[in-house]
Amino acid sequence: MSLILATPHTEAPAPALAPRELETLRHIAAGCTYLQAARQMGLSRHTVDAYLRRIRTKLNINTTAELTRLAIALGL
What we know:
mainly alpha, globular
């Protein structure tokens, strides 16, 4: 499942997020640290960091707080 979003900084739809990116976003929105998310997903912390960098780039989001706010707004 992929998700197409409108970013908070633009009206245009953002690129779709990959399933692992969505899963990562869910963990961060639930309050997990990068390391906790990595352990729950069976990944390295660096892979989770890479997923979050890709999400930020795709959605033009700069902070973890913005990521969390978006995930909560989407019901993730």
